[in-house]
Amino acid sequence: MIVSHLTLRQLQAIRAIYDAGQISAAAEALAVSQSAASVLLSQAEATLGTRLFDRTTRRVTPTEAVEQIIGIVNRILSDVASIDAVMTDLKELERGVVRVAATPATGIALLPRTVERFLSAHPRVHLEMNDCAPDQFFSLIREEKVDFGIGIPPADRADFDYRVLHHDPVHLVCHRTHPLARRPHVAWRALDGEPLILARRNYGVREQVEATIRAAGGTPNVVSEIGFLYSAEWMVASGMGMAAFPARLAQAIRNPEVVVVPLVDPVITRTMAVISRRGRSLSPPAQRFVELLAADLR
Q1: Choices 2.40.10.10, 1.10.10.10, 1.20.1260.10, 1.10.760.10: CATH for 3-91
Q2: Given pLDDT bands bounded at 50, 70 and 90, which one contains residue 4?
Q3: Could you read off the pLDDT of 35-57 as tens digits, one per residue?
Q4: What is the band of 199 on the pLDDT scale with cuts at 50, 70, 90?
Q5: Is the pLDDT of residue 286 over 80?
Q6: Which CATH superfamily includes the segment(s) 97-164+271-296?
Q7: Most exposed: 23, 160, 251, 263, by fewest CB within 10 Å?
Q8: Strand runs labelled E in 42-147
């Protein structure tokens, strides 16, 4: 006897025949022919190695064997129905958890509108945001502590899959009284020797900014290194220097003493992507979050 060889359809036949007391009525409930229901019962009995019902021309009578297992059969079928309900809810975004990693700067610049729209549309889906430090970002994805991250694509794709969502141009952030603040746009060569407030090395667009200034014939003059957007905001507002940030992040600054100006010649961008562990698919709720974010960044 190999109980694991019982099929779901055979279990449904056992329950239907037990409940109906007749094979014909059970067949109707199962939406199959009477002969098909009889075959399902015979197959189940052969697998179990015992008779489950005594048959007469008018009815079937449960044996002691089926009385002993009918509770288990009902629980199995109930659990299967629960699986179906959970899968339906996931597909229809009525339940689930979405775990997202993003640095604080990325969160401020890209996520508020998307998070608000997602929670409003799908209040029964739990959203977990991990506002990690940049040096923790890829580890969280690699170790699958989050479903995906929003950030700069990895240089090494061995462990990751990613989809580019947005190319964000880098803008100058300077004090409103600085001469460059009055220009409609600023060429990179104009930053030669200017006091710069930039992110720490390996953070944000630090390397891009320095390399672009050098390529334009200038010399970067970094006077302060920061780890948080708000540090740059008050430092620029206090006249300590100027900063360069992706446009969406720069536009999150609301200080009236600070002006944001596009940088040109050349225009450089920060590429933002949704990044997941290689080979891992996203759940329907996670896919929906990414779809909303992609739409918001267009």
Answers
A1: 1.10.10.10
A2: confident
A3: 999 999 999 999 999 999 998 87
A4: confident
A5: yes
A6: Periplasmic binding protein-like II (3.40.190.10)
A7: 251
A8: 53-55, 60-62, 97-102, 126-131
CB-based contacts of 65, cutoff 8 Å, min separation 6:
48, 50, 51, 52
List the domain boundaries for the chain.
3-91, 97-164+271-296, 167-270
Look up the pTM and report it.
0.71
Mean pLDDT rounded to a whole number for the chain? 91
Residue pair 145/263 in contact by the 8 Å Cβ criterion? no
Rounded average pLDDT over 99-114: 93
> Same CATH fold, 167-270 and 3-91?
no
- Interatomic CA distance for residues 231 and 211, integer angstroms: 23
Question: Alpha carbon of 262 to those of 40, 48, 156, 203, 244: distances in Å?
Answer: 73, 76, 30, 21, 10
CATH number of 167-270: 3.40.190.10
How do strand 97-102 and strand 186-187 relate by DSSP bridges? unpaired
Is the previous residue joined to 179 through a cis bond, with omega within 30 degrees of 0?
no
How many CB atoms lie under 10 A from the CB of residue 29? 15
